[in-house]
Predict the structure.
Amino acid sequence: MRFIRSVPILSRAFVLFAALTSGTWAINITTVDIPYLIKAGSTDPIILDCNYELGNSSTDGLVIKWFVNQDVLYQWIHGKVPTGSEEFKKYIDESFKASNDPRTMYRAVKLVKPSHELSGNVTCLISSMYGEARAIRKMLVYSPAKSLQLHHPLLNKTANRLTVTCLAEGLYPRPKIIIHRDRKPIQFQEQRYKNNTDGRFTAEAIAVLKADKVKLPVIFQCEVSIFEANYSFIQEYVYNGSQVPCFSLLILTLNLIVFKRY
Ligand SMILES: *[C@@H]1O[C@H](CO)[C@@H](O)[C@H](O)[C@H]1NC(C)=O
Ligand SMILES: *[C@@H]1O[C@H](CO)[C@@H](O)[C@H](O)[C@H]1NC(C)=O
Ligand SMILES: *[C@@H]1O[C@H](CO)[C@@H](O)[C@H](O)[C@H]1NC(C)=O
Ligand SMILES: *[C@@H]1O[C@H](CO)[C@@H](O)[C@H](O)[C@H]1NC(C)=O
Ligand SMILES: *[C@@H]1O[C@H](CO)[C@@H](O)[C@H](O)[C@H]1NC(C)=O
């Protein structure tokens, strides 16, 4: 189905006329409920809601539209069934009713396992023959690391070089990655970030140390974090100088998820 982009010019003129003559607002948004931070794939019920009052004005031409940035997310034409847009249908529960009042029943959007693609400026637009009202909020659907690998350090005795690498995948928005040695960030390290075709990021950190300056055992930690989401994930690796990693004895992996709610 096609989505109506905006109210036609003629009805806009009428709206202005109506507003001027009546001296009141035909539509008022009373509450806006758009969460600022969501974890991608979350199974918690997430509802985007703008409640409104129509006062005495009728529901003629009442249309509720939701956008993510410039893209339509959801639309409900009063008296019809609500529909999620082609692009985002898979993240929407179209059967969700926000109320039993036929004037506002399908005003809200219930998200089902949302993805990072739904991040951005979320807008609700309530319009009718008599007026329109909108609300905009920023929403971030962050994607935590799908994997974080701190590899066994590579020793090159001839070059007196110990190389530590760490790879994190599947993050959104762009994370920060950093390798620590005995809880302090390593001074010389290189970070590489790649934006994948799905929009999520791969981050890699490579640190090179002078092998004879490394006191064993040494604790390496790789931390990947998303500042805006207050998210951080740490892998730890204890290196005692052996060339071949013996998983049962040498590796101490500590997964630390720090996720604080605002
Ligand atoms: C909207 O708010 C304005 C200003 O507070 C008020 O004059 C108007 O009656 C309200 N309209 C509705 C439909 O509630
Ligand atoms: C709505 O209609 C009622 C009755 O017709 C009237 O008393 C009231 O003032 C109207 N309210 C507004 C906001 O126009
Ligand atoms: C969201 O809105 C802000 C402020 O209007 C703007 O600076 C920003 O570029 C917008 N973001 C997107 C993704 O469109
Ligand atoms: C070790 O470093 C030297 C000098 O940079 C290099 O020629 C050699 O190929 C390296 N050895 C390995 C196994 O990477
Ligand atoms: C990442 O790549 C996608 C598609 O390749 C693109 O649409 C998006 O704008 C890029 N994002 C950033 C932050 O570079």
